[in-house]
């Protein structure tokens, strides 16, 4: 459930008419609903009631510091994958003990920064990484709390570009090899093995791959404890899908996912003495944000009608990158108009700059606004300035107030970053 809806023929974000934001900010822009973000966090947290837990929002999904801060105030931690994301999380007031650090390519300076603030857990993805982390920790006089990210070799049955838990993917350490790597940690003075981690992919709509993966990692925890390791925490990653409004299989509700987690855990452990870490990203932010764009032209093609928007693939990359489906709704709803079939495209000079094909929608004309839904996760964070287009702004709504949380980075600001050497 979200807080974007039509009232008296116009679309609102909570109690703010989107036209009002468009007038002040211009288009295109992202807008997030604070109540929706908070609600999604609460729903996910409620689903895990009874487990000792820490919900580390996957910062890569939406890394605006205002978003991180409001989630942090509700108790969320952060899952970061770079020194940059670590800085954002800290700036949002998330303390080190609520931060986990994932990713296959952590550089020594990023490890140092995380060691200095005493993060909760490094999710280590390879032996070379473990060795560098050990050396950095010893140098700084610290001990790094480590979980190995296990690659359980399960098929997440999601888009191949966002599937991460198969043996052929670059992520994690083979679950067959992991026990040996934990043994090696016993010899490493800078490393404390405290947990086990898994994340098999994103936008999963089937619980079975999760169940298989979680069963394997809990088995691993039990084995490791038997081998004398003091494993106190388990990180089950993120990945639960959200409804995008297409006909694809609807993802399970967080409560159903939570029940599955609890069932697997209780089946396998007589006494559940573990802290659970989760890393949801899309589930929290995806349907808490939309992108609003203005129609520039309506163009009659050969047998098709193109609605040319002022937003493009550089503002929202998902349709071009993953053939992702996003609902597109008119901001001004006209009840009586008969719907027609259109393609929504952007102004960028690539055929891939297409948001949707063959959508039924009321007739639109230049100047109308549309809302591209479910854009709060992997939207603004993946935007860029291709075709020298300004970087899209972000707005946060709470009740009847709204605030710009990242201004539009204008073309002059972008061009000003280029430097011309004196020999040119
Ligand atoms: N933890 C780790 C280690 C991850 O790699 C990811 C996402 C998450 C958590 C959060 O997953 P979520 O709960 O959001 O599914 N740009 C793509 C999605 C890439 C996901 C990458 N990793 C998209 O737009 O669909």
From TrEMBL:
Q: In which pathway does it act?
A: Amino-acid biosynthesis; L-lysine biosynthesis via DAP pathway; L-lysine from DL-2,6-diaminopimelate: step 1/1
Q: List residues binding substrate.
A: 282, 318, 322, 350, 378
GO-annotated molecular function: diaminopimelate decarboxylase activity; pyridoxal phosphate binding
Task: Give all residue intervals belonging to the Orn/DAP/Arg decarboxylase 2 N-terminal domain.
Answer: 36-285
Instruction: Provide the positions where the record notes the PTM N6-(pyridoxal phosphate)lysine.
Output: 60
CDD domains membership: PLPDE_III_DapDC
Q: Which residues form the Orn/DAP/Arg decarboxylase 2 C-terminal domain?
A: 29-376
* Known role: Specifically catalyzes the decarboxylation of meso-diaminopimelate (meso-DAP) to L-lysine.
What is the name attached to this protein's record?
Answer: Diaminopimelate decarboxylase
């Amino acid at each position: 459930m979200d807080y974007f809806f039509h009232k008296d023929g116009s679309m609102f974000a909570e109690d703010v008419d989107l036209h009002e934001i468009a007038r002040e900010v211009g288009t295109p822009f992202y807008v997030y609903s604070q109540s929706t973000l908070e609600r999604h966090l609460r729903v996910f947290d409620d689903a895990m009631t009874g487990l000792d837990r820490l919900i580390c929002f996957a910062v890569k999904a939406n890394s605006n510091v205002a978003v991180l801060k409001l989630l942090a105030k509700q108790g969320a931690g952060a899952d970061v994958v770079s020194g940059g994301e670590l800085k954002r999380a800290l700036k949002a007031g998330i303390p080190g003990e609520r931060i986990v650090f994932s990713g296959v390519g952590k550089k020594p300076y990023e490890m140092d920064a995380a060691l200095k603030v005493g993060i909760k857990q490094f999710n280590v993805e390879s032996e070379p990484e473990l060795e560098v982390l050990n050396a950095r920790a010893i140098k700084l006089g610290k001990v790094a709390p480590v979980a190995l990210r296990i690659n359980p070799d399960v098929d997440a049955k999601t888009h191949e570009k966002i599937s991460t838990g198969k043996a052929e993917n670059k992520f994690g350490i083979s679950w067959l090899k992991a026990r040996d790597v934990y043994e090696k940690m016993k010899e490493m003075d800078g490393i404390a093995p405290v947990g086990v981690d898994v994340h098999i992919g994103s936008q999963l709509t089937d619980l079975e791959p999760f169940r298989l993966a979680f069963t394997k990692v809990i088995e691993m925890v039990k084995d490791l404890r038997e081998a004398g390791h003091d494993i106190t925490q388990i990180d089950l990653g993120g990945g639960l899908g959200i409804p995008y409004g297409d006909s694809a299989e609807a993802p399970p509700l967080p409560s159903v996912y939570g029940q599955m987690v609890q069932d697997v855990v209780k089946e396998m452990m007589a006494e559940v003495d573990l802290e659970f870490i989760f890393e949801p990203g899309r589930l929290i932010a995806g349907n808490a944000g939309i992108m609003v764009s203005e129609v520039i032209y309506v163009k009659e093609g050969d047998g098709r009608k193109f609605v040319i928007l002022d937003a493009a693939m550089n503002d929202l990359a998902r349709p071009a990158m993953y053939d992702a489906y996003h609902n597109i709704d008119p901001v001004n709803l006209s009840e009586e108009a008969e719907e027609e079939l259109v393609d929504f495209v952007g102004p960028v000079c690539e055929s891939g700059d297409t948001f949707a094909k063959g959508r039924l929608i009321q007739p639109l004309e230049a100047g109308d606004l549309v809302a591209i839904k479910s854009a709060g996760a992997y939207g603004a964070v993946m935007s860029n300035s291709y075709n020298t287009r300004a970087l899209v702004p972000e707005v946060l709504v709470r009740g009847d107030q709204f605030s710009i949380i990242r201004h539009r980075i204008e073309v002059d600001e972008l061009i000003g970053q280029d430097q011309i050497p004196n020999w040119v």
